[in-house]
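Quick note —
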Amino acid sequence: MTSMGNALVHEMTGAGRPDDPITTLYLDGDRLLLTHYCDAGNRPRMAGKTSPDGKTVEFDFLDVAGSTQYGHMHHAVFTVIDANHHAEDWIYMMPGDKPVHAHFGLQRTK
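Predicted structure written out below.
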């Protein structure tokens, strides 16, 4: 949590990865928003909708700041597995509107 509890910062790191993408999640009124600070040099925003069981949040593209010359993140799904594990599915839109899917199984660091 950051900004007096007003935002959640999600940092994904991994062995051998030169980058360190950051995503912030925050409430804007009654909307759950996500801003992804991408290694492609842009910042897409997405709006989230929670599943009825509360275990999945699906984020749909709103807009993007910065250049999309190298593509941009376009869609994300976060699925809670347990208190220390979750899965993420991201759709990256390549130039020419070619989608690329990435799946991550993640765990909280100690």
